[in-house]
């Protein structure tokens, strides 16, 4: 049974009310956990200080208007990809569905790799996907966009507390000794000689670390837990390291930085996160997450109920890479044109490719959340795109590999070779009744010279070929096809150059067969072909994208993904388009009939230079 989202509550946000109705959402284990927590009132008594803060700050606040709090916590060290979209849709979607809020939190505790450019790109990607950190739960300007680096003071204060309480110590062992003494799955670790120092001695050293009295790497602050724990993450994990690096927000204020495993639980707690959802590889970190927050709650720095961590399977999608680091490599080595290359699974790349936010949200909804790793076929994502665009993308004709066709009886029928005739086709032929898209029909010309697809003609037709071919040596007639939206024509011959390359196809138009006229069906045609008239077609650059990798799992068995790069992943053609496309706006999407879905490139397309990207081919339904 699929469970419906909770009914509207007084906490429902204006934006949640404005959200379009969604299809029934499939339940999954995270929904069940949240529903059980809401039923049990696990978080009902929490208070919210109006901003992130410690126990005292929140205790002085009002009852939390958010029934749950989730967060999306990217590290600003690259552009977001489709895997992040899964996490964004999950976290923002759960908050929306259960009367909660979702925080956008930049996890910027690692100064070396983080940059403002990435912060801006992440903001843009989250907004583009249709989510918002302005929750409206506690008033119109209730913004939940946070930076972990704003918590550095608290994190340090917490570190001093842990030292004073005997839960942490400064270790001066070398990195190698520390590694060797950690043990492994078969061997318990060995206590550091520094482990038995008094809290006062440790506090003095921690303060020296912070004051910059020691070089990088000279010592670290470690939790004092259990060097024999079967969970290696509990063998006195490092909490702080010395690193003289300029941080993109705090500059040189700090020369020590918290480790991710220490910082992350604290960030969640200061923000009163209820359900901290992360990927499965953090499962073994959960005991430390709980240990740390319990110790800080004992010290009165945090208050119960504490955040809880839940793990779900990360998205693995065939034919792409979902790792910022590896995507960064493709970008920095110039294998692609940039972070927004339409072949990349970054949200910037998918956007430029023409994917819609709603297709990506539909995809995230469909794949749901589970606790076991699996691979999702790229076709699932393409299917969501087609579903989204099928009833909304206006149709247009485009000839991608043009071959000239001359209607030999045109002048005779029209009195002049230059005469033209107006044709129309609906912009959206199959819009379901009650659909809200009402677009005027498309208008275009028919004339003596046309452009057709090169493979819609065969001088010697293969068996069963239904499109244009000339009369055959055995006396068989030239074939008849319908020019979509116009007349039936019959092929009479062709011209080829000295190499046998076909340069021109000849046909005659059969009068009285125009689409929509009473005689339209008087002559049978075996196929309909797409075309544009030389008189009004507009030229365009069309970028035909294929998969960036040749293999579904470019890294399977430890393979080097660079070896799997598809050298033909981009083919650029000069096409002729129906004139309606001259008005296309950047990012406007169309279905080029018989070819697939295309978008006007958001960077390069302009009225003076039309540039379209293929988003996805149509399902192959045209046969021979
Ligand atoms: P990457 O390895 O690509 O850098 P990451 O996990 O290190 O990914 P973060 O910026 O730390 O990147 O991720 C932010 C959030 O997105 C995390 O909560 C993480 O769990 C989630 N996330 C990242 N990749 C995926 C994925 N493939 N599927 C689902 N969630 C993901
Ligand atoms: Mg990471």
UniProtKB/TrEMBL annotation:
Compositional bias segments (type: Low complexity): 13-24
Any idea which GO molecular function terms this record carries? Answer: ATP binding; glutamine-tRNA ligase activity
HAMAP family assigned: Gln_tRNA_synth
Reactions listed under catalytic activity = tRNA(Gln) + L-glutamine + ATP = L-glutaminyl-tRNA(Gln) + AMP + diphosphate
What superkingdom heads the lineage? Answer: Bacteria
Q: Give the principal location in a single coarse category.
A: cytoplasm
Entry's localization field:
Cytoplasm
- Glutamyl/glutaminyl-tRNA synthetase class Ib catalytic domain: residues covered: 68-389
Annotated L-glutamine binding lies at 107, 260
Q: What is this organism's lineage?
A: Bacteria, Pseudomonadati, Pseudomonadota, Betaproteobacteria, Burkholderiales
EC number in record: 6.1.1.18
Family annotation (Pfam families) = tRNA-synt_1c, tRNA-synt_1c_C, tRNA-synt_1c_C2
Motif interval(s): 'KMSKS' region: 321-325
Q: Where does ATP bind?
A: 75-77, 81-87, 279, 314-315
Motif: 'HIGH' region; annotated at: 74-84
Q: Which InterPro entries match?
A: aa-tRNA-synth_I_CS, Gln-tRNA-synth, Gln/Glu-tRNA_Ligase, Gln_tRNA_ligase_bac, Glu/Gln-tRNA-synth, Glu/Gln-tRNA-synth_Ib_cat-dom, Glu/Gln-tRNA-synth_Ib_codon-bd, Rbsml_bL25/Gln-tRNA_synth_N
List the gene name.
glnS
Region labeled Disordered — which residues? 1-26, 44-67, 182-201
Q: Which residues form the tRNA synthetases class I (E and Q) anti-codon binding domain?
A: 529-601
Quaternary structure annotation from Swiss-Prot or TrEMBL: Monomer.
| Record protein name field | Glutamine--tRNA ligase
Name any Gene Ontology BP term. Answer: glutaminyl-tRNA aminoacylation
Query: Pro residues bias: where?
Result: 1-11
GO CC term, one of those recorded: cytosol
Query: Which family, according to UniProt?
Result: Belongs to the class-I aminoacyl-tRNA synthetase family.
Species name: Serpentinimonas raichei
Record keywords, A-Z: Aminoacyl-tRNA synthetase, ATP-binding, Cytoplasm, Ligase, Nucleotide-binding, Protein biosynthesis
Q: What general EC class does the enzyme of this chain belong to? A: ligase
For whether the record's keyword set contains 4Fe-4S, the answer is no
């Amino acid at each position: 049974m699929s469970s419906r989202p909770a009914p509207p509550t007084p906490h429902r946000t204006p934006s949640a009310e404005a959200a379009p109705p969604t299809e029934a959402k499939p339940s999954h284990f995270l929904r069940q956990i949240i529903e059980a927590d809401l039923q049990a009132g696990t978080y009902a008594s929490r208070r919210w200080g109006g901003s992130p803060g410690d126990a005292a700050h929140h205790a002085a606040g009002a009852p939390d208007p958010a029934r749950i709090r989730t967060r999306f916590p990217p590290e600003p060290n690259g552009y977001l990809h489709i895997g992040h979209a899964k996490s964004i849709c999950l976290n923002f979607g759960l908050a929306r569905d259960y009367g909660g809020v979702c925080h956008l939190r930049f996890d910027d505790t690692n100064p070396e790799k983080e940059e403002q450019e990435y912060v801006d790109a992440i903001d843009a990607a989250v907004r583009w996907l249709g989510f918002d950190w302005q929750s409206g739960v506690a008033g119109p300007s209730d913004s939940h966009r946070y930076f972990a680096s704003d918590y550095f003071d608290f994190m340090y204060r917490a570190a001093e507390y842990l030292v004073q309480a005997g839960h942490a110590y400064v270790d001066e062992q070398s990195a190698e000794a520390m590694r060797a003494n950690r043990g492994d799955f078969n061997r318990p670790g060995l206590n550091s000689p520094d482990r038995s120092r008094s809290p006062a001695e440790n506090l003095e050293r921690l303060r020296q670390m912070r004051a910059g009295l020691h070089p990088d790497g000279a010592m670290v602050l470690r939790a004092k837990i259990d060097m024999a724990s079967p969970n290696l993450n509990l063998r006195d994990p490092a909490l702080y390291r010395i690193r003289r690096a300029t941080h993109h927000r705090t500059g040189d204020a700090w020369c020590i930085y918290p480790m991710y495993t220490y910082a992350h639980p604290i960030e969640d707690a200061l923000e009163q996160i209820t359900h901290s959802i992360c990927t499965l590889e953090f499962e073994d970190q959960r005991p430390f997450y709980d240990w740390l927050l319990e110790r800080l709650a004992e010290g009165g720095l945090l208050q119960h109920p504490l955040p809880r961590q839940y793990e779900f399977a990360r998205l693995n999608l065939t034919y792409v890479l979902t790792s910022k680091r590896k995507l960064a490599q493709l970008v920095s080595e110039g294998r692609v044109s940039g972070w927004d290359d339409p072949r990349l699974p970054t949200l910037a790349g998918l956007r430029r490719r023409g994917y819609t936010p709603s297709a990506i949200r539909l995809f995230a909804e469909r794949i749901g959340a589970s606790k076991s790793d699996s691979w999702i076929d790229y076709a699932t994502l393409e299917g969501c795109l087609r579903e989204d665009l099928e009833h909304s993308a206006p149709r247009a004709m485009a000839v991608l590999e043009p071959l000239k066709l001359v209607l030999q009886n045109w002048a005779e029928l029209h009195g002049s070779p230059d005469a033209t005739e107006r044709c129309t086709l609906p912009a959206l032929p199959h819009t379901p009744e009650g659909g809200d898209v009402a677009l005027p029909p498309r208008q275009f010309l028919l004339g003596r010279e046309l452009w057709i697809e090169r493979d819609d003609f065969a001088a010697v037709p293969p068996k069963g070929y239904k499109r244009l071919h000339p009369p055959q040596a055995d006396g068989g007639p030239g074939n008849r096809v319908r020019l979509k939206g116009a007349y039936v024509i019959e092929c009479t011959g062709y011209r080829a150059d000295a190499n046998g390359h076909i340069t021109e196809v000849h046909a005659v138009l059969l009068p009285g067969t125009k689409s929509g006229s009473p005689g339209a069906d008087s002559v049978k045609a075996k196929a309909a072909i797409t075309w544009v008239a030389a008189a009004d077609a507009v030229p365009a650059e069309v970028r035909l994208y294929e998969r960036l990798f040749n293999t579904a799992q470019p890294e399977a068995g430890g393979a080097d993904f660079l070896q799997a790069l598809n050298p033909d992943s981009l083919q650029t053609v000069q096409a002729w388009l129906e004139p309606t496309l001259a008005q296309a706006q950047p990012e406007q999407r169309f279905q080029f009939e018989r070819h697939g879905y295309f978008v006007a490139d958001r960077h390069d397309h302009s009225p003076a230079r039309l540039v379209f990207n293929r988003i996805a081919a149509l399902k192959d339904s045209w046969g021979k």
